[in-house]
Fold this protein.
Amino acid sequence: MEKLKSMVPDRLKQIVADSNADDLHSTSSSLLHFLKNLSQFHQMIRDLTDLEAALCAKNKDAALELKQKANKCYSHGDYDTALASYSQALRIAPTDAIDMDKSLVATLYLNRASLFLAWYRRGKANAALGNYKDAIHDLDVAKNMELSLGGKKQIESELKIIAGQYEGTSYRRVQHIENGLGNLNEPHQINLLCVAMPDKGRGMASPCDIPQASLVHKEEPYALARGETISYYRTKNGIDDILPNNLKEYIAEVTSCSDSDPYVECFPEHKHECLGVHWPAVLPSEIVLAGRILANLYLKEETIILVSQIRVNAMAVIRMKSTDVHCPPDQFGKFSHIGDALTSSVDQVPVGKAIYIAGSLFNHSCQPNIHAYFLSRTLFIRTTEHVAAGCPLELSYGPQVGQWGCKDRLKFLEDKYSFRCQCIGCSQLNLSDLVLNAFHCVNPNCDGVVLDGCVSNSELNKLRNFPGVPKMQVDELNNAHIDNVDHLVLELSNNSFNIQPGYCLNCGSNCDLEASHKAMRNAWICMERLQDAIVSKEISTTILSDASKGLGVLRSILHRYNRRLQRVIWDMTPEPLKEGFIWPNPTIFRQRMRLFFFKETFIDGFNGAEDNLAQAFCLVGDFQSARDHCKASIKILEMLYGNDHIAIGYELVKLSTIQLSLGDPHAADAINRLGLIFVRLLLRASNEVCVATTSSNVMILKGAYLLGQVDLEGPCIFKPTT
Ligand SMILES: C[S@@+](CC[C@H](N)C(=O)[O-])C[C@H]1O[C@@H](n2cnc3c(N)ncnc32)[C@H](O)[C@@H]1O
């Protein structure tokens, strides 16, 4: 019935609302004239007159079945069907004196009423997303379901505002096309769907196939705090009086749920979103205390809930800044020789934090398919890969597969955001998680993988928590760049993955994990000493040769695809340092290597070793070996990330600069490939820069800068709080 009501045009509704008893005939016939063309109307008449389904034909079992169907539809976000099913169930639910039936009717009414909230919220989310037409439809339904006059009036006024915005955008769209702007390469914005995701609460999904690098969302901030400055205003009447209306609405919205709200029951794991139940978990203790004091003074629990909301939803605004020295372009464009002191240092400058209403509906994935960035204060979100219709659109809140192991990713997200990540990377086996921190098999003739207790536990947990998933994944693993990992035999018996810590997955040899860990730690200390020495500019041959030996140890105990080793190897000379070797003056190698370094830019936590050993390698001046190792490193990364990942682009920047320094004509190939990767990930549209993965912003910018595609002073990058 509500659906049908929502289909009645406003003009007709107004006529009915303004009519009196004298107009009854004419208004009824206008209504009938409109309704009789609707199939839904005829269906409703059939339902009402059908003896089985009509009001008097009660059927408890059928009502229960409909209720279950409605609940299911509700949790999947199919509110249309949920509403129709609840209404149908109410029609046939018995209302006699049996208690259970009474409570059935009450529950049906309650659930149907709770749909109001869902429609209302979806309407608001659609409005924030610019899907004004859908927003109007949703709020119209919510208005029809709202019983109180005040509530109806409030929704009506919201509808008016949205209708105004809708007219504005239609006008702008028309203008856009008339001005010929519709022909710009920039794909037009796609109207996303806000849907209920299993285990993640609400989330965004694509309504259609979306090509890579499409702009899928653009939004102005709801609130922005620049730097550390936050202003508070007080009046003698208290906070409530001076809060702007829209902030009051926001507070009302985030605090309006109660435990009986079925919406909340659907998504228990993110209750802090709605109820603040877990707020002590997401907030630092000082804020909890401050919140408690404020709560006593002003807004009760609402204050803390609001702060929790902000904590979970705020995004950090980062601006990219370059202090580069520009050299005249050579035949390869903006590249230059190492000795020319061309640098491409890029710093991330935090600008502030902001809240985006619709932007905060995007869930996290450790294998994201979208990237959020920021120009001035506007949030932009683009796809980083082709996204099929109906797929969730998810960005990374920080950790990503290939950069951190699964356990660390889960811990970070739990510590920082208080949710257990349910993304595909954390629920399915993937090659990267298996080899990222793997040890080498002790058998010199075997190239198999040995996992330590931590990694094997977290992989086994995936299998335990997400049964049924691994088989498909193992098949996938077997097909994934297997020329490099054909030795990685994954045994699957009775749907359980045969992983034992310390045992080679290939030949089953046992490795003394304790001894390996110890050796790794000692080797790593040598790397860290070298780092300190570089910082203090006091590099001795002992420190360097110790680091070189340390590398040898790491090579012998870590699997060759271990990320830690990979980061080290390419930077380190393959030849052990000869005793008595005299290292050049640190200032000279620093100058030479400036090209390779830019602050805070490495995609994982091992940048210290990379810095140190790359610089050490530069000291040796063996660029041929550097080139070979760089190529080897690219091969490993291809295996870990695929051919087009930005991590490869980053290595290609290094490779091409080394090749250029050697006068190697193959530099052009590396640059071309680099160009393809960056062009794919980086779009220039209306002076903006699109970056592809959260933690690789700087690398993309660096590549783009080297390709002459971007002025680093211009763009700002946005990334979620990390
Ligand atoms: C910024 S909000 C995203 C929108 C949210 N799902 C909602 O319904 O409002 C972040 C919250 O969504 C949920 N979430 C996001 N990504 C998730 C993931 N990968 N696994 C589990 N929960 C997730 C968590 O409750 C998290 O605190």
